[in-house]
């Protein structure tokens, strides 16, 4: 990957499109936002694949995130809470938590930071009727 200097940050051209990165979000995505998005996106992607394999029918999946940063250490990310809100049919919370633990084990982004950032995952289910 090649990153290129721009007036207020960096830019990279990727297959999907152009990504602008800047400490000032009027000029691009902030680095910490990209870190949180990478962790949430990877986790959700792996989780979704597991649910699909097990034929768990979901209608919607949202992840609400909370980030704790330490201003005394360059605003370092210390904790990320991922709260999954799952809408679906015949949902089993115990099975979903087991699948979430399996997704965590297989998410490369979570595994890459697990020794330096605390990542807490919770979920809530909303049962839909047919």
From TrEMBL:
Oxidoreductase in keyword set: yes
The alphabetical list of record keywords is:
Oxidoreductase, Peroxidase
SUPFAM superfamilies, alphabetized: OsmC-like (SSF82784)
Which Gene3D superfamilies does this one have? 3.30.300.20
> What EC number(s) would the UniProt record show?
1.11.1.-
Q: Does the keyword Transferase apply?
A: no
GO molecular-function terms, A-Z: peroxidase activity
Superkingdom as given in the UniProt entry: Bacteria
Name by which UniProt lists this protein:
OsmC family protein
